[in-house]
Design goal:
Layout (H helix, E strand, L loop, with lengths): L1 E2 L3 H11 L3 H31 L5 H7 E4 L11 E5 L9 H5 L7 E3 L33 H10 L2 E6 L3 E3 L2 E3 L2 E6 L10 E8 L15 H30 L1
Antiparallel strand pairs: 1-3, 2-3, 4-9, 5-8, 6-7, 8-9
Helix pairs in contact: 1-2, 2-6
Length: about 240
Protein backbone atom coordinates (compact mmCIF):
# COMPACT_ATOMS: atom_id res chain seq x y z
CA UNK A 1 0.00 0.00 0.00
CA UNK A 2 1.29 3.46 -0.94
CA UNK A 3 0.10 6.14 1.47
CA UNK A 4 -0.39 9.71 0.33
CA UNK A 5 -2.29 12.62 1.81
CA UNK A 6 -5.27 14.16 -0.04
CA UNK A 7 -6.35 17.82 -0.39
CA UNK A 8 -8.93 17.63 2.40
CA UNK A 9 -6.28 16.46 4.82
CA UNK A 10 -3.95 19.22 3.68
CA UNK A 11 -6.59 21.90 4.33
CA UNK A 12 -7.34 20.44 7.74
CA UNK A 13 -3.69 20.42 8.72
CA UNK A 14 -3.27 23.93 7.35
CA UNK A 15 -6.03 25.28 9.57
CA UNK A 16 -4.60 23.54 12.64
CA UNK A 17 -1.05 24.71 12.10
CA UNK A 18 -1.95 28.25 11.07
CA UNK A 19 0.60 30.84 10.03
CA UNK A 20 3.54 28.60 10.91
CA UNK A 21 2.40 26.00 8.37
CA UNK A 22 5.32 26.28 5.87
CA UNK A 23 7.87 25.41 8.52
CA UNK A 24 5.98 22.73 10.45
CA UNK A 25 3.98 21.14 7.68
CA UNK A 26 6.56 18.67 6.22
CA UNK A 27 7.27 17.12 9.64
CA UNK A 28 3.58 16.79 10.51
CA UNK A 29 2.70 15.24 7.17
CA UNK A 30 5.63 12.81 7.43
CA UNK A 31 4.47 11.76 10.89
CA UNK A 32 0.97 11.22 9.51
CA UNK A 33 2.09 9.09 6.58
CA UNK A 34 4.60 7.03 8.53
CA UNK A 35 2.08 6.24 11.24
CA UNK A 36 -0.41 5.08 8.63
CA UNK A 37 2.21 2.85 7.02
CA UNK A 38 3.12 1.16 10.31
CA UNK A 39 -0.55 0.77 11.26
CA UNK A 40 -1.11 -0.91 7.90
CA UNK A 41 1.78 -3.29 8.58
CA UNK A 42 0.30 -4.24 11.96
CA UNK A 43 -3.13 -4.80 10.42
CA UNK A 44 -1.66 -6.91 7.59
CA UNK A 45 0.23 -9.07 10.07
CA UNK A 46 -2.93 -9.81 12.04
CA UNK A 47 -4.83 -10.52 8.84
CA UNK A 48 -2.21 -13.01 7.60
CA UNK A 49 -2.14 -14.79 10.97
CA UNK A 50 -5.92 -15.13 10.90
CA UNK A 51 -6.42 -16.15 7.27
CA UNK A 52 -3.31 -18.22 6.47
CA UNK A 53 -1.17 -20.84 8.15
CA UNK A 54 2.01 -19.09 9.31
CA UNK A 55 4.71 -21.65 10.04
CA UNK A 56 7.56 -19.24 10.71
CA UNK A 57 7.01 -16.01 12.65
CA UNK A 58 10.46 -14.75 11.68
CA UNK A 59 9.59 -15.18 8.03
CA UNK A 60 6.36 -13.23 8.53
CA UNK A 61 8.09 -10.35 10.31
CA UNK A 62 10.84 -10.12 7.69
CA UNK A 63 8.38 -10.19 4.79
CA UNK A 64 6.27 -7.23 5.93
CA UNK A 65 8.19 -3.99 5.49
CA UNK A 66 7.63 -0.26 5.80
CA UNK A 67 9.51 2.37 3.83
CA UNK A 68 9.23 5.61 5.78
CA UNK A 69 9.04 9.03 4.22
CA UNK A 70 11.30 11.90 5.23
CA UNK A 71 10.06 15.41 6.07
CA UNK A 72 10.85 16.74 2.61
CA UNK A 73 8.52 18.76 0.40
CA UNK A 74 5.00 17.38 0.81
CA UNK A 75 4.70 16.75 -2.93
CA UNK A 76 7.60 14.32 -2.68
CA UNK A 77 6.45 12.49 0.43
CA UNK A 78 5.25 8.91 0.23
CA UNK A 79 5.28 6.06 2.75
CA UNK A 80 5.08 2.45 1.58
CA UNK A 81 3.74 -0.53 3.49
CA UNK A 82 3.50 -4.08 2.14
CA UNK A 83 5.18 -7.44 1.67
CA UNK A 84 8.41 -8.06 -0.21
CA UNK A 85 9.71 -10.81 -2.44
CA UNK A 86 12.85 -12.52 -1.20
CA UNK A 87 14.66 -15.81 -1.45
CA UNK A 88 12.21 -17.76 0.69
CA UNK A 89 8.91 -16.41 -0.59
CA UNK A 90 6.85 -14.22 -2.90
CA UNK A 91 5.26 -12.08 -0.20
CA UNK A 92 1.93 -13.94 -0.52
CA UNK A 93 1.24 -12.49 -3.97
CA UNK A 94 -0.56 -15.67 -5.01
CA UNK A 95 -3.11 -15.38 -2.23
CA UNK A 96 -3.64 -11.62 -2.48
CA UNK A 97 -4.12 -11.49 -6.25
CA UNK A 98 -5.17 -15.06 -7.06
CA UNK A 99 -2.03 -15.82 -9.07
CA UNK A 100 -0.71 -19.29 -9.82
CA UNK A 101 2.01 -20.24 -7.35
CA UNK A 102 5.63 -20.16 -8.45
CA UNK A 103 6.49 -23.22 -6.38
CA UNK A 104 6.09 -26.43 -8.33
CA UNK A 105 5.78 -28.76 -5.35
CA UNK A 106 3.23 -29.08 -2.59
CA UNK A 107 4.72 -30.28 0.70
CA UNK A 108 2.62 -32.95 2.41
CA UNK A 109 1.81 -33.32 6.09
CA UNK A 110 4.06 -36.38 6.20
CA UNK A 111 7.05 -34.21 5.27
CA UNK A 112 6.08 -31.91 8.14
CA UNK A 113 6.33 -34.69 10.70
CA UNK A 114 2.58 -35.26 10.79
CA UNK A 115 1.74 -31.66 11.78
CA UNK A 116 0.42 -29.56 8.90
CA UNK A 117 1.21 -26.35 10.82
CA UNK A 118 4.88 -27.28 11.17
CA UNK A 119 7.67 -26.51 8.72
CA UNK A 120 8.98 -29.26 6.47
CA UNK A 121 11.65 -31.39 8.11
CA UNK A 122 15.09 -30.54 6.68
CA UNK A 123 15.72 -34.11 5.52
CA UNK A 124 12.51 -34.03 3.47
CA UNK A 125 13.20 -30.77 1.64
CA UNK A 126 13.79 -31.29 -2.05
CA UNK A 127 16.90 -29.13 -2.17
CA UNK A 128 18.39 -31.09 0.74
CA UNK A 129 17.51 -34.53 -0.52
CA UNK A 130 19.46 -36.62 -2.98
CA UNK A 131 16.73 -38.93 -4.26
CA UNK A 132 17.28 -41.64 -6.83
CA UNK A 133 15.28 -41.62 -10.08
CA UNK A 134 14.07 -44.37 -12.41
CA UNK A 135 16.36 -42.89 -15.09
CA UNK A 136 19.31 -44.15 -13.06
CA UNK A 137 17.95 -47.67 -13.48
CA UNK A 138 17.16 -47.55 -17.20
CA UNK A 139 13.65 -46.31 -16.36
CA UNK A 140 12.93 -49.64 -14.70
CA UNK A 141 10.78 -48.62 -11.73
CA UNK A 142 10.44 -52.11 -10.28
CA UNK A 143 14.19 -52.63 -10.34
CA UNK A 144 14.71 -49.28 -8.58
CA UNK A 145 12.24 -50.34 -5.89
CA UNK A 146 14.04 -53.64 -5.31
CA UNK A 147 17.36 -51.83 -4.99
CA UNK A 148 15.91 -49.35 -2.48
CA UNK A 149 14.33 -52.22 -0.57
CA UNK A 150 17.66 -54.02 -0.35
CA UNK A 151 19.19 -50.84 1.09
CA UNK A 152 16.55 -50.54 3.77
CA UNK A 153 14.57 -47.80 2.02
CA UNK A 154 15.29 -44.23 0.96
CA UNK A 155 13.98 -41.32 -1.08
CA UNK A 156 13.19 -41.36 -4.78
CA UNK A 157 11.77 -38.84 -7.22
CA UNK A 158 9.29 -39.35 -10.05
CA UNK A 159 9.14 -36.81 -12.87
CA UNK A 160 5.85 -38.31 -14.04
CA UNK A 161 3.17 -40.47 -12.48
CA UNK A 162 3.71 -44.21 -12.67
CA UNK A 163 1.14 -46.99 -12.73
CA UNK A 164 1.65 -49.89 -10.35
CA UNK A 165 -0.22 -53.08 -9.59
CA UNK A 166 -1.94 -51.29 -6.72
CA UNK A 167 -2.85 -48.14 -8.61
CA UNK A 168 -0.52 -45.27 -9.44
CA UNK A 169 2.09 -43.06 -7.86
CA UNK A 170 1.88 -39.34 -8.56
CA UNK A 171 4.92 -37.34 -9.63
CA UNK A 172 6.98 -35.94 -6.80
CA UNK A 173 9.33 -36.83 -3.95
CA UNK A 174 8.68 -40.15 -2.25
CA UNK A 175 10.09 -42.05 0.70
CA UNK A 176 10.32 -45.82 1.05
CA UNK A 177 10.34 -47.14 4.57
CA UNK A 178 11.46 -50.74 4.86
CA UNK A 179 8.89 -52.17 7.24
CA UNK A 180 7.01 -54.89 5.43
CA UNK A 181 7.87 -57.40 2.74
CA UNK A 182 6.17 -56.56 -0.52
CA UNK A 183 6.94 -58.13 -3.87
CA UNK A 184 6.15 -54.89 -5.68
CA UNK A 185 7.86 -52.23 -3.63
CA UNK A 186 9.64 -53.97 -0.80
CA UNK A 187 8.38 -51.37 1.71
CA UNK A 188 5.90 -48.68 2.66
CA UNK A 189 5.75 -45.64 0.36
CA UNK A 190 5.08 -42.14 1.67
CA UNK A 191 4.55 -39.05 -0.50
CA UNK A 192 6.67 -36.14 0.77
CA UNK A 193 6.22 -33.52 -1.96
CA UNK A 194 3.73 -33.60 -4.79
CA UNK A 195 4.81 -32.22 -8.14
CA UNK A 196 1.94 -30.20 -9.57
CA UNK A 197 2.55 -27.45 -12.12
CA UNK A 198 -1.15 -26.69 -12.42
CA UNK A 199 -1.96 -26.35 -8.73
CA UNK A 200 -4.26 -23.45 -7.97
CA UNK A 201 -4.51 -21.46 -4.76
CA UNK A 202 -7.81 -19.89 -3.78
CA UNK A 203 -7.67 -16.13 -3.55
CA UNK A 204 -7.34 -14.86 0.03
CA UNK A 205 -7.23 -11.08 0.23
CA UNK A 206 -5.06 -10.61 3.29
CA UNK A 207 -4.05 -6.97 2.75
CA UNK A 208 -6.02 -4.92 5.24
CA UNK A 209 -8.43 -2.40 3.73
CA UNK A 210 -9.65 -0.67 6.91
CA UNK A 211 -8.30 2.58 5.53
CA UNK A 212 -10.49 4.96 7.55
CA UNK A 213 -9.35 3.40 10.84
CA UNK A 214 -5.69 3.53 9.78
CA UNK A 215 -6.16 7.08 8.53
CA UNK A 216 -7.57 8.16 11.89
CA UNK A 217 -4.62 6.63 13.76
CA UNK A 218 -2.27 8.51 11.47
CA UNK A 219 -4.15 11.74 12.04
CA UNK A 220 -4.07 11.33 15.84
CA UNK A 221 -0.33 10.76 15.83
CA UNK A 222 0.20 13.75 13.54
CA UNK A 223 -1.73 15.90 16.02
CA UNK A 224 0.59 14.74 18.79
CA UNK A 225 3.56 15.72 16.63
CA UNK A 226 1.96 19.10 15.98
CA UNK A 227 1.42 19.72 19.69
CA UNK A 228 5.01 18.74 20.43
CA UNK A 229 6.22 21.14 17.73
CA UNK A 230 4.11 23.95 19.20
CA UNK A 231 5.54 23.30 22.66
CA UNK A 232 9.05 23.59 21.27
CA UNK A 233 8.17 26.88 19.59
CA UNK A 234 6.74 28.27 22.83
CA UNK A 235 9.89 27.20 24.68
CA UNK A 236 12.09 28.93 22.12
CA UNK A 237 10.14 32.18 22.55
CA UNK A 238 10.53 32.00 26.34
CA UNK A 239 14.29 31.48 26.03
CA UNK A 240 14.59 34.53 23.76
CA UNK A 241 13.08 36.85 26.35
Amino acid sequence: MNVKIDDRDLKKFSQLIGKDMPKAFPKIVASYLNTMAFEQRTANKKSLEQKLTIRDQRFLNNSLRVEKTKPVSINQQIAISGSIRWQEGTGWEEQQYGKKPERKHAITTSARGGNYKAKALPKYRLNKANPVKPQQYRNNFQFMMRVLGSRGGGQFYLDNKIKTKKGQLVAGLWLMIKKTTDKTTGGKLILLQKKDKSQNIGRVKWENDRFEYIKQRGFNNAMKSLELWKQKQRLKKLLRR
